[in-house]
């Protein structure tokens, strides 16, 4: 086989830097495209063996059909989540690999950064002092020490976040669909977590089953003044129900690194435009909502690991009988893919 060609979609400057560096030894032919992978842009992958994609590339049935027809053999996600790929449809047509872990610390630390910013009103104080306004009124926060934090999803990121919270003297309770036996984590039911937590942080993958797990009914069961942190996937939270929950003064604050409809907005500069999404605009207008644009992963360490693992995934796929970071729609059945891949998924 000649040089492996990778069509790299949704490429940002920081992606180019880390992948060009990681590719120094591998020497793949990488074509960087700024556009996202969609039905309209997939022609750019013509002649490629691999498409490399990120969280907001939409790999639906039609895109999969087009890629297969062009002879693309591998979808290499440079992220952990794979909810944006129709993996059931991809089964037996095209293989999918991901980067299951690149820095749980990056995401967990960002979640804590958002929480501290919100609780201590740092986002307000920063703007005030820039304007030489040294008044403290309206900046009263509260101690995290002694508060109960509910962690939904106790995988790699959830556990690091739980440990950070313990360091702050918080009482950590958790819910996981597949609780880790013997981990020492205090598991409770989702209902109990929702009822008892002062802060709830989401670290589970998005699936059909948990889409809108935060909705009108679950918000009604939460403590008044609860703080929600979402660094996982936007659609875990029904954004309109969130707006209502904040307007009703039920939700005390929201820290959002992800948003249900982020794919049309996040990662782009709209500072000179009118944003069409009224729900997002309403959320951003609220003093107790902090939005970052899917930035939790963005550390030097994470970018290096993402590039290294993605290129290793490609090498392994073309050279070996097995591919340890492959995902297929059957994988989640096996305890969220805890299986050792001894051979390719199909
Ligand atoms: P992980 O696979 O290590 O852990 C996920 C945990 O969620 C597992 O323990 C699993 O059992 C649990 N889980 C699965 N379904 C669940 C459900 N319905 N309810 C509760 N728990 C459930 O994954 P991770 O590396 O910790 O990443 C977690 C999520 O964080 C990813 O799926 C991804 O969506 C998100 N993420 C976001 C960023 C970012 O930049 N914002 C970066 C990386 C990952």
Descriptive account of the structure:
By secondary structure, the chain is an alpha/beta fold. It folds into 2 domains: 5-102 and 299-319, Rossmann fold; 104-291, 3-Layer(aba) Sandwich (Rossmann fold), CATH 3.40.50.720. Helices cover 33% and strands 14% of the residues. It is built from 11 helices and 11 strands. The strands form 2 sheets. It has a 6-stranded parallel beta sheet, with helices on both faces. Helix 9 links the parallel strand 9 and strand 10 (251-256). It is globular, with a radius of gyration of 21 Å. The structure holds nicotinamide-adenine-dinucleotide. Residues 80-81, 101, 104, 107, 152-158, 175-178, 203-205, 207, 209-210, 231-233, 257-258, 294, 296-297, 336 line the site of nicotinamide-adenine-dinucleotide.
Structure in a nutshell:
By secondary structure, the protein is an alpha/beta fold. The protein is 33% helix and 14% strand.
Shape: globular
Task: Enumerate the spans where pLDDT stays under 50 for 5 or more consecutive residues.
Answer: 334-338
Give the helices and strands as they follow along the chain: EHEEHEHEHHEHEHEHEHEHEH
Oligomer: single chain
Which range best describes the helical content: under 10%, 10-25%, 25-40%, 40-55%, 55-70% or over 70%?
Answer: 25-40%
- Would you give the CATH topology of the largest domain? Rossmann fold
Protein topology:
Elements: E1 5-8, H1 13-26, E2 29-32, E3 50-53, H2 61-70, E4 74-77, H3 87-90, E5 95-97, H4 104-119, H5 122-130, E6 148-152, H6 156-167, E7 171-175, H7 190-196, E8 199-202, H8 216-221, E9 226-230, H9 239-247, E10 251-256, H10 278-285, E11 289-291, H11 300-319
Parallel strand pairs: 1-2, 1-3, 3-4, 4-5, 6-7, 6-8, 8-9, 9-10, 10-11
Bound molecules: nicotinamide-adenine-dinucleotide.
């Amino acid at each position: 086989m000649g040089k492996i060609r990778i069509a790299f979609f949704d490429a940002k400057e920081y992606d180019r830097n880390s992948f060009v560096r990681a590719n120094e030894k591998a020497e793949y032919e990488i074509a960087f495209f700024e556009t996202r992978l969609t039905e309209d842009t997939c022609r750019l992958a013509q002649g490629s063996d691999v498409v490399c994609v990120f969280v907001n590339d939409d790999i639906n049935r039609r895109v999969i059909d087009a890629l297969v027809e062009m002879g693309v053999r591998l979808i290499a996600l440079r992220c952990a989540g794979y909810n944006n790929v129709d993996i059931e449809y991809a089964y037996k047509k095209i293989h999918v690999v991901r980067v299951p872990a690149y820095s749980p610390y990056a995401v967990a630390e960002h979640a804590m950064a958002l929480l501290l910013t919100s609780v201590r009103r740092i986002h307000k104080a920063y703007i005030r002092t820039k304007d030489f306004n040294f008044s403290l009124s309206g900046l009263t926060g509260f101690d995290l020490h002694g508060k109960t934090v509910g962690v939904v999803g106790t995988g790699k990121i959830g556990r690091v976040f739980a440990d950070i919270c313990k360091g702050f003297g918080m009482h950590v309770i958790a819910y996981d669909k597949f609780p880790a036996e013997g981990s020492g984590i205090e598991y409770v039911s989702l209902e109990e977590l929702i009822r008892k937590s002062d802060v709830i942080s989401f670290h589970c993958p998005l699936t059909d089953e948990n889409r809108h797990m935060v909705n009108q009914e679950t918000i009604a069961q939460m403590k008044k003044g609860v703080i929600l942190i979402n660094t996982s996937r936007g659609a875990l939270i029904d954004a309109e129900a969130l707006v209502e929950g904040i307007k009703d003064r039920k939700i005390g604050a929201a820290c959002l690194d992800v948003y249900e409809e982020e794919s049309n907005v996040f990662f782009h500069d709209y500072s000179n435009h009118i944003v069409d999404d009224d729900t997002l605009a309403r959320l951003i207008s609220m003093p107790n909502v902090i939005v970052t644009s899917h930035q939790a992963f963005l550390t030097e360490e994470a970018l290096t690991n993402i590039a290294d693992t993605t290129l290793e995934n490609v090498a392994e796929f073309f050279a070996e009988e097995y591919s340890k970071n492959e995902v297929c729609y059957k994988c989640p059945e096996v305890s969220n893919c805890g299986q050792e891949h001894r051979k390719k998924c199909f």
